[in-house]
């Protein structure tokens, strides 16, 4: 599960978001939509821990996969300076990805900010006749990969908080309008917690199943250290589940949002 | 000519094929890391800290990265001692490695009850956790005073039918005094150090990074402190010392042996390098071969300090 992947291509998507295309047969051959990799940003003690980053796209023919990340701190800053030909120490693919039910005819992916990236491979892999993507961004400057998402969805709707691009409003507002027009079979969320919380509640109202992909600060990334937990329903009580190993994708109804 | 290398150590009746043990709280019950390497290669596994009843632990975030280390505030999330015995021991027993049950309690009575239960279980030793910094009751409350350590270890020792290791907290004025108390109360060995109580703040939000506000610091950044404490304790007690704190490779381990440790525990390093445990064993062997040392026991306390 631990290997070295070669950087094939790097691409800056906007002022602080980067895409890396990595070559690794081991990972590309078995990675599923919604899984992640845990990688070292540098040697030595700087940015000591690995960084968990979700898999954006897999190219199984070329044995490559893409990850997209936003520069947030030291680790991602170092990662943004990596160049083609460099090698990265990667563990993966890790975690439980999205569930694809190919009897579904209409699916919606609803993503916000950097949460849109793991939804991309899901759109690629799903065989539903109708695939709607609703992507939310802060403003026009943050909109990325529009053409790529358009290519792999039957309908792409972009929402911005300030209305500087696409529809003004939140992803969940757009989602409700879609549902009122035509009820999808399944919805997949990845984005800010408040968006997913609102989204899950909305779908429960319309009785539509959904999955959410969660994020938390991680330690080992494989389920041993128990640091990246989230509250999940268990019988009549609740428990902490491990986002890295039991998730990052969970059924919407199982999550207790605080 | 290649000499034979003996890595076996015996710690107060606990026989280990090599002196490298997975540190409690970093290794779960071994299942996850068994996908990375053969657990037979480990001297032992100190399992995730157990309590009498299942514990949910603290709210997230439970981890913060700091220079050369991490802070954690898991708070002893575990399925409880009974679930451990039923579900985890059979898994661990498939491997030829020592099982060390790390036990915590809220009260002295709970420590005693845990020890009674674990003495009947198929394990090789008990590591009494008197040092978790992330729970409100028990643990560090007992472990941070000689009186507390004396009281718990005395009572536990009366019912213990397995080698008893007492895990010490570094969050005290004088760890030597605490170690002596453990020895006086009948501990068969001491392990040190548990994590150092610390804190991290996000200046953007003005909030602590950990939901628990404080957490335990571990990783390479704590190694000099751990080494100093292992050295001081080894000088003052006769029982074996198991050293830990920031060990990432064989050379780090050798430093702890020279300071007086009979065995070492490796933990946090495995989050970064899942092969850290195995590489530590290999690194010790390499050092011994290069330096013509046949028995790892020769290294213990081998520091030259004149």
Detail the topology: elements first, then pairings.
The complex is a heterodimer of chains A (258) and B (306).
Chain A (H helix, E strand, L loop, with lengths): L1 E11 L4 E7 L1 H4 L7 E4 L11 E9 L4 E7 L3 H7 L6 E8 L11 E7 L5 H8 L4 E8 L8 H6 L3 E6 L6 E2 L2 H11 L4 E5 L2 H14 L3 E4 L15 E6 L2 E6 L6 E3 L7
Parallel strand pairs in A: 7-8, 7-11, 8-9, 9-10, 11-12
Antiparallel strand pairs in A: 1-2, 1-6, 2-5, 3-4, 3-6, 4-5, 12-15, 13-14
Chain B lengths: L8 E3 L2 E3 L3 E3 L21 E3 L16 E4 L2 E4 L8 H12 L5 E6 L4 H12 L5 E5 L10 H4 L2 H14 L4 E4 L7 H10 L4 E4 L3 E4 L1 E2 L4 E2 L5 E5 L4 H14 L4 E4 L5 H10 L3 E4 L2 H4 L3 H15 L16
Parallel strand pairs in B: 3-4, 3-16, 4-7, 7-8, 8-9, 9-10, 10-15, 15-16
Antiparallel strand pairs in B: 1-2, 5-6, 6-14, 11-14, 12-13
Can you characterise this structure?
The complex is a heterodimer of chains A (258) and B (306). Chain A is an alpha/beta fold and 258 residues long. Chain A folds into two domains: 2-94, Translation factors (Elongation Factor Tu (Ef-tu), domain 3); 106-213, Rossmann fold, CATH 3.40.50.80. Chain A has six helices and 15 strands. In chain A, the strands form three sheets. Chain A has a seven-stranded mixed beta sheet, with helices on both faces. In chain A, strand 11, helix 6 (193-206) and strand 12 (210-213) form a beta-alpha-beta unit. Chain B is α/β, with parallel strands linked by helices. Chain B has a single domain, classed as Aldolase class I (TIM Barrel, Alpha-Beta Barrel), CATH 3.20.20. Helix content of chain B is 31%, strand content 20%. Chain B has helices at 81-92, 108-119, 140-143, 146-159, 175-184, 223-236, 250-259, 269-272, 276-290, and strands at residues 9-11, 14-16, 20-22, 44-46, 63-66, 69-72, 98-103, 125-129, 164-167, 189-192, 196-199, 201-202, 207-208, 214-218, 241-244, 263-266. In chain B, the strands form four sheets. An eight-stranded parallel β-barrel of chain B has the order 3-4-7-8-9-10-15-16, surrounded by six helices. In chain B, helix 5 crosses helix 6 (223-236). The model of chain B has no long low-confidence stretch (mean pLDDT 96). Chain A binds chain B through residues 1-2, 40, 45, 47-50, 91, 216-230, 239-240, 245, and chain B through 25-28, 31-33, 35-36, 48, 56-57, 60-70, 72, 74, 77, 209, 219-221, 270-272, 274-275.
